[in-house]
Specification:
Elements (H helix, E strand, L loop, with lengths): L2 E6 L6 H12 L3 E6 L9 H8 L10 H6 L2 H6 L3 E7 L1 H9 L5 H8 L4 E5 L3 H5 L1 H12 L3 E2 L3 E4 L5 E5 L3 H12 L10 E6 L4 E4 L2 E3 L6 H12 L3 E6 L10 E5 L3 H11 L4 E4 L6 E3 L19 E3 L3 H6 L7 E8 L3 H12 L3 E6 L9 E2 L1 E5 L2 E4 L3 E2 H15 L1
This protein binds cytidine-5'-monophosphate.
The site of cytidine-5'-monophosphate has 13 residues, from helix 12 and strand 16.
């Protein structure tokens, strides 16, 4: 039995919080509800109290509650804090660390895992401010679910619907699963980010890559207890907890760092390595207008993944990524054979995957192709890490 503190925000989806309370109870957990002022317009504390068979909290200034159970204690007595529906306003306050009512104060005071299930109008969800807040929260370790897509109460269509209560419960249970240490004693290598191939001291050739997916995978592997060496191209991302990071710039540096980090039990090559570098990078900045536009002579870079897969020190499990804009699975199957990888994680980058926080992937293995639903990069990472643990 786990204790869930459920914060119900203001929004039409708040009515689904009632079903969520019922499901949490049915799964054998206890739930204590906190309803924001907005939430109380859509669902009454009485309803939630009856369904949860627990006192419902609504205000920071109820001295009786403060005497019986201070807000700090309320936020820590739980095993997990879930926010459903998480409105744009709640997400913004959480990201900014604002504590101006009971719900936000509990969220700032808690030391427990926090999971947020967003629900809002599609434009509000897609707004740069909300996306920035979601990215901040994920960076802070909050599990922010992707909203469902479909017709909305406001008449518009798109992502923004509260995920179904069953899906929220599954996510709560996944977040509660004790970090199993399933990869304890295993060493996993991860490459991430782009490489920069200098043209001269100020210019370079590179692929588009934020490094987010690779960093998330490194973090998820470390969370399962693996020793993780993350070989990162030039990206501006914080190092995930428990990960040893080696920064490199070029493909050749990345290849050397991979080599030096061996042996490993598994390797996940997520980096978007530049396929070519200039034959001889200029020692000084090439001046515009001195001559005609310079012609670049390109030389092929080493294929780090293929090299590792065919080396004498091949890790037991070698995983490559394939970013494709068309015929995604077909290309991935061919790539798996060509590179000598055990698995290829194929991602469809025809949309806004690059730099974004969600990913649509297919896992291509010896036994076939598995297509995953559109997931947050953090969830792709967690699922892949679990699969790696299964395989090792
Ligand atoms: O050939 P392509 O770049 O599409 O292959 C992608 C996969 O190969 C990714 O896993 C990437 O990290 C890896 N790769 C590599 N070294 C290269 C090119 C790609 O490790 N030079």
């Amino acid at each position: 039995m786990k204790r869930i503190l459920l914060i119900v925000g203001g929004g039409i989806a708040a009515y689904k919080a009632c079903e969520l309370v019922r499901l949490i109870r049915k799964a054998g957990h206890s739930v204590t509800c906190v309803v924001t002022a907005g939430g109380q317009h859509f669902v009454t504390p009485m309803t939630l109290a009856a369904l949860s068979e627990n006192q419902v909290y609504t205000t920071l200034w109820d001295l009786k509650d403060e005497a019986e159970m201070g807000h700090i204690q309320l936020s820590r007595a739980a095993d997990l804090v879930a926010v459903a529906p998480a409105t744009a306003d709640l997400l913004a306050k959480m990201a900014a660390g604002i504590a101006d009512d009971l719900a936000t104060t509990l969220l700032l005071a808690t030391d427990k895992p926090v999971l947020a299930a967003p629900a809002m109008n599609v434009r509000m969800w897609q707004h740069a401010a909300t996306q920035r807040n979601v990215a901040t929260l994920r960076g802070d370790g909050v599990t922010v679910l992707e909203p469902d897509e479909g017709p909305m109460a406001c008449g518009e269509f798109g992502p923004g619907r509260l995920p179904e209560p069953e899906a929220i419960l599954r996510a709560i249970e996944a977040a509660l699963a004790p970090s199993s240490g399933r990869l304890k004693g295993k060493h996993v290598l991860v490459t991430a980010g782009p490489t920069h191939e200098p043209i001269d001291p100020v210019r370079y050739i590179a692929n588009r890559s934020s490094g987010k997916q690779g960093f998330a995978i490194a973090g998820a592997l470390a969370a399962l207890g693996a020793r993780v060496t993350l070989i990162a191209g030039p990206v501006a991302l914080p190092t995930p907890a428990g990960v040893e990071r080696i920064d490199v710039e070029t493909a050749r540096e990345m290849a050397a760092a991979v080599d030096a980090a061996l042996p490993a039990d598994a390797a996940v090559m997520v980096a978007a390595v530049a396929d070519w570098r200039t034959g001889d990078a200029a020692g000084q900045k090439i001046k515009k207008g001195d001559t005609a536009a310079p012609a670049l002579t390109l030389v092929e870079n080493p294929d780090i993944l293929a090299g590792l897969a065919h080396s004498a020190h091949r890790p037991r499990l070698v995983i490559g990524f394939a970013a494709e804009t068309e015929r995604v699975v077909e290309h991935a199957i061919a790539k798996r054979a060509r590179k000598g990888a055990d698995w290829i994680v194929a991602n469809d980058v025809s949309g806004d995957v690059m730099g974004g926080d969600a990913n649509l992937v297919h896992l291509v293995t010896e036994s076939g192709v598995e297509s995953w639903e559109r997931l947050a990069k953090a969830d792709v990472a967690r699922r892949l890490a679990e699969r790696i643990a299964d395989a090792l």
